[in-house]
Amino acid sequence: MTTKQQCNVYLPPELVRDIKHRSIDEGLSLSALVEKALTEYLDRAPKEER
């Protein structure tokens, strides 16, 4: 099992609502969807920016 760390972020209510709906549609937990989105975002960034 991978160790996880909690991280609090503040987002607009509309974005939170949309993320919750998308996580349900994709059959993922909210945490898993956010992890997937951030990982994909970072994978697209040039390595020197990381």
From TrEMBL:
Domain of life: Bacteria
Domain Ribbon-helix-helix protein CopG: 8-44
Single GO BP term: regulation of DNA-templated transcription
Membrane-spanning segments: none
InterPro entries attached to this UniProt entry: Arc_rbn_hlx_hlx, CopG, Ribbon_hlx_hlx
Protein name: CopG family transcriptional regulator
